[in-house]
Amino acid sequence: MAAIRIIDLGLVDYASAQELQQTAAFEAAGGGPETLFLLEHPPTITFGRNGGVEHLPFSPAFFAERGISLVQADRGGSITCHFPGQMVAYPVMRLDRRPGGLRRFFHDLEESVIRTLARFNLSAGREDGCLGVWTQGRKICSTGIAVKRWISTHGLSLNLSADLALFDLVSPCGLAGVQATSVHREHGNADITMPLLKDVFTQEFCAVFELCKDISLP
């Protein structure tokens, strides 16, 4: 079974996480280890290659005054939000070595989240024509990746905290009427911690992708 390096970055700004992903992607392209980064971001709104700026209802100055960063990312998808209390996972992987191409990769990312939520007795799944993971018609996890030289960067963001105020300032994924939700909102148990969520997700991610944790690497 192939191994993957798991790195928990804690709370890290978007630009720093991007640099770390690019370094890991360069290493992977040269035959180095694949890496799964787990982290949280400070309040940040990002836009994908497909746009998203048009879904901002306020000026950039409005967000700057509130300490919210606006970032143009190179991932797919539209607008989304990041904040403390949201688990972000960035798998840097060699997709040319995995069967099924991009479609299978997205499916397995979503499947990892679906299985993670099931471990907390939350029923979740996919919505036709929409990326991410949904529960009862509400979006609990967003996905968006970039691929260069068949190496993936970016990934997914799974909402844990009940505080989703940042989503009130945008239209999630650029889709009108989409309601964001979280593990704490759906489960009603605030004792589910970020370390626990990361641990369970890592287990399910490795099971779905048929990987083991490389304990020889940090």
Provide the fold topology.
Layout: E1 2-11, H1 14-29, E2 34-40, E3 44-47, H2 60-65, E4 69-72, E5 80-82, E6 86-92, H3 101-119, E7 125-127, E8 130-135, E9 138-148, E10 151-159, H4 183-187, H5 194-208, E11 211-213
Parallel strand pairs: 1-2, 1-11, 3-4
Antiparallel strand pairs: 2-6, 3-5, 6-10, 7-8, 8-9, 9-10
Helix pairs in contact: 3-5
Total domain count: 1
Cα-to-Cα separation, first versus last residue: 19 Å
Largest sheet report:
8 strands, mixed
Alpha-carbon Rg, integer: 16 Å
Please identify the top-level CATH class. Alpha Beta
**What low-confidence regions span 5 or more consecutive residues with pLDDT below 50?**
none
Binned strand content: 25-35%
How large is the count of helical segments?
5
Question: SSE order in H/E notation?
Answer: EHEEHEEEHEEEEHHE
CATH-level-2 architecture: 2-Layer Sandwich
Strand order of the largest sheet: 7-8-9-10-6-2-1-11
Average pLDDT figure? 89
CATH H-level superfamily title? Bira Bifunctional Protein, Domain 2
CATH topology: BirA Bifunctional Protein, domain 2
Give the helix level as a range of percent: 25-40%
Report a brief summary of the structure.
With 218 residues, the protein is α/β, with parallel strands linked by helices.
